[in-house]
Each structure stands twice: as structure tokens, then as C-alpha cells.
């Protein structure tokens, strides 16, 4: 390593930067110690963004981060896993010694960042560098903290999303929750966090329909998306630039049970997975013509019965995580399984395999590409 660094230092720094941006985050964190110039380069926002895009294009498939929601059992909050095995690697977290609490995680990562939250705390975390930023409590969290009952202050369900204004490059955590105030049973309340002021603010009008808190919020193409909790299920989106809500039309799953639905992002498009016993179909939203295309069909009898799991009735849908470019397979997991096993499906051969099977449940999986990026 020392000889390689000496040879690189003899090169023009512009060339050194091009070499460095091809390296993985773990290596770059070590190379910061080579010189002050290298440290300055690695810590510059321009280099970090360029390195992230370069490494993402070269690496192919995302890493899988497991976020534990049962830390009281001695589980680690964050671990990365190795697909095709039962092994995982712990990611030390600075707040674990201070706060041994359960966390939920936003479904999407963005630029290598994830958002962890519960009823009292929220964090934006970079798992690769261990950087994190604690967010002050939003109004909903303050009400819960004082009353210890979501029904007492008037809020029944909550859901947090995390994304980025693609025009201003501004990151925005968003709380959206259903209100039970008198006369507002079908209304929601929306709070957006502003990193420049370190404060939450209300956005009005909020979603015109209550949302299903059981289903993950998904960020695609500059907007966060929720499924609505009304007679006919709809998709409501929130543009992070205009901060306006709108309803996506022509959903083919309007009469499905919430337990049979899941939202995800596949091939940079919004997708909704729907159980239509004995199959599960995945719909992909075409934003150009506002239509839904059926892109996958999963045979639940074959998928689950192959591993000794009752296929039907099942309470929860299989949640798609990603399309693995290297193997051209669909990666998904079953939210109802105690051990949170991950499966892959080959669309051509229809073959299913276990991609990850821990001895005990180690959390909720989130796909992410490691980065050096933080939010100042």
C-alpha cells in the first residue's frame, strides 16, 4: 500500500483523483491518512458525489443492509449481509452505547444514506462511514413523548419517507401520518425536515387520503409515494421540489387487501406488488403515459412450499427489494417470516433460491450503495 501511494503521489493530482474515485469507500477512508491533500480530496463534496456515481456504475448490484428492530434481544442495529450465505458483518453505530432502542427504517436509501426512526428519535445515517445526524423530534414525536399514546393526541398511524429534491440536491425526511382530530378523520398531517434550519415545518395541504402505515414509503424520480387507506386503494405522491401531493390514476389494484400489497422501486420505476392467489404480480408504473405494466408473476405455491412455508393463506406479500443485474434475478423477502429470509427468482427458468437465511431474525433489509456522502 505504501509503495502504491508513493507512486500515485508522483502523478498529477487530477490523475490521482480519477484513480481514487474508482476505489471503494473502505479504501478511501484509509487513504485519507496519506496526505492532507488526499484527505481534502476525499472530504470534498464534489469528489464524494463523483465517486458515488462512478462506483455505483461499476459495482453493479447494491449491498443489502439489515436494520434490526429487536435490539432488546441483543441484536446489532446495523449489519451488511452476504447474499447466498448466512453470514453478515456488523456495522458499529455511534449511538448504540447511549441508546439501546428499536428502530424502523425508511424503505429507500439515497446516495448511500438511510433514515432510521422510532416514536422518539430520528437519524440520517451513512452505514459505510458511520456518520450520522440526529434530527430533533417532529410534532408527532413530541405529542407521543408527552402522552405515550398515539390515539390520545389524535394521531393513529405514522409513516416516514426519505428522499432528495433532484433540482436543488436537498435531502428531505418527511413524516406523513393520519389525523383523528374532530372532523378530520380522512385527513393527514405532513411535516418536512429542513437541514438548513434544523427544524420541521408543516406542509399544507397534506395528502387528501389517509395512508396505509403498514406499507413502506417509496422514493422514485423526485417524489415519495404512499398507498392510501380508503375504499379504493390509490397511490399518492409527494413531489419533494414543489412539495405538492397528487394522486396517481388508473391503479389496477384498487380492491386489493392492504395485507396483499407492497411498494418498491425496481429499475428506477415505482412498482406495486399484489397478491392474486395463488400468484403475486408486480406492477410497474410508466410515468410517461401514466399506465401500469405487469412485469413479474410469482407463483406463491412453488416459492414458499419449496422451503416448507405454507403458501396460502399468507398474511403478507413478498416484498421485492431489487433486480440483481449481475445474476438477472429478482430479490425479495417475506415480511411474515420470523427469520426474514431473502429469496431470488429467475424470471426465465422460474427457479427460486434462498439468498440469505440467518439463524435468527436480524432485521429489515434495505438495498444501498456505499458512499462517503454526509449532510452538513
Task: Give a quick precis of the structure.
Pfam families: F-box, FBA_1. The chain folds into two domains: 2-54, no CATH class; 60-368, 6 Propeller (Neuraminidase).
Explained architecture:
It is a single chain. With 376 residues, the chain is of the alpha+beta class. The chain has 2 domains: 2-54, no CATH class; 60-368, Kelch-type beta propeller (Neuraminidase), CATH 2.120.10.80. It is 16% helix and 36% strand. Strand 4 (104-105) and strand 5 form a beta hairpin. The model is unreliable at 150-154 (pLDDT under 50).
The stretches of 5 or more residues where confidence is low (pLDDT under 50) are: 150-154
Per CATH, the architecture of the largest domain is: 6 Propeller
Largest sheet: 4 strands, antiparallel
- Order of strands, main sheet, comes to 3-2-1-24
CATH superfamily of the largest domain: Kelch-type beta propeller
**Helix/strand-derived class?**
alpha+beta
What number of domains? Answer: 2
User: Radius of gyration, Cα only, in angstroms?
Assistant: 21 Å
User: What is the CATH top level name of the largest domain?
Assistant: Mainly Beta
Helix content: 10-25%
The DSSP helix count reads 7
Quote the beta fraction: 35-45%
Total number of β-strand segments? 24
Ends apart, CA distance between termini: 31 Å
How would you describe the shape? globular
The average pLDDT score comes to: 80
Q: The CATH topology of the largest domain, please?
A: Neuraminidase
Protein name: F-box domain-containing protein
Organism: Capsella rubella
Pfam families: F-box, FBA_1
Amino acid at each position: 500500500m505504501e509503495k502504491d501511494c508513493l507512486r500515485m503521489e508522483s502523478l498529477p493530482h487530477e490523475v490521482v483523483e480519477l484513480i481514487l474515485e474508482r476505489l471503494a469507500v473502505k479504501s478511501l477512508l484509509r487513504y485519507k491518512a496519506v496526505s492532507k491533500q488526499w484527505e481534502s480530496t476525499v472530504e470534498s463534496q464534489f469528489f464524494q458525489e463523483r465517486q458515488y456515481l462512478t462506483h455505483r456504475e461499476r459495482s453493479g448490484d447494491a449491498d443489502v443492509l439489515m436494520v434490526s428492530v429487536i435490539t432488546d434481544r441483543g441484536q446489532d442495529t446495523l449489519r451488511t449481509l452476504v447474499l447466498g450465505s448466512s453470514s453478515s458483518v456488523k456495522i458499529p453505530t455511534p449511538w448504540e452505547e447511549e441508546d439501546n432502542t428499536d428502530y424502523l427504517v425508511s424503505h429507500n436509501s439515497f446516495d448511500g444514506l438511510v433514515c432510521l426512526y422510532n416514536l422518539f428519535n430520528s437519524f440520517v445515517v451513512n452505514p459505510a462511514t458511520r456518520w450520522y445526524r440526529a434530527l430533533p423530534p417532529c410534532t408527532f414525536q413530541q405529542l407521543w413523548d408527552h402522552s405515550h399514546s398515539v390515539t390520545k393526541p389524535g394521531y393513529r398511524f405514522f409513516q416516514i419517507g426519505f428522499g432528495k429534491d433532484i433540482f436543488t440536491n436537498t435531502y428531505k425526511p418527511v413524516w406523513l401520518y393520519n389525523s383523528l382530530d374532530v372532523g378530520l378523520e380522512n385527513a393527514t398531517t405532513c411535516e418536512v425536515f429542513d437541514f438548513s434550519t434544523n427544524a420541521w415545518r408543516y406542509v399544507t395541504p397534506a395528502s387528501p387520503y389517509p395512508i396505509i402505515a403498514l406499507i413502506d414509503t417509496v422514493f422514485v424520480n423526485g417524489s415519495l409515494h404512499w398507498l392510501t387507506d380508503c375504499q379504493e386503494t390509490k397511490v399518492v405522491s409527494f413531489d419533494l421540489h414543489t412539495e405538492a401531493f397528487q394522486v396517481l390514476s388508473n391503479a389496477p389494484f384498487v380492491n386489493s387487501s392492504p395485507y396483499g400489497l407492497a411498494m418498491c422501486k425496481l429499475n428506477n420505476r415505482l412498482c406495486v406488488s399484489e397478491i392474486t392467489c395463488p400468484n403475486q404480480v408486480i406492477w410497474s408504473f410508466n410515468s410517461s403515459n401514466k399506465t401500469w405494466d405487469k412485469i413479474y408473476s410469482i407463483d406463491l405455491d412453488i416459492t414458499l412450499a419449496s422451503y416448507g412455508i405454507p403458501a396460502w393463506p399468507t398474511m403478507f406479500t413478498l416484498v421485492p427489494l431489487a433486480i440483481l443485474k449481475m445474476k438477472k434475478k429478482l430479490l425479495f423477502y417475506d415480511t411474515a417470516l420470523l427469520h426474514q429470509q431473502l429469496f431470488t427468482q429467475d424470471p426465465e427458468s422460474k427457479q427460486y433460491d434462498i439468498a440469505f437465511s440467518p439463524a435468527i431474525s436480524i432485521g429489515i433489509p434495505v438495498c444501498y450503495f456505499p458512499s462517503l456522502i454526509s449532510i452538513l
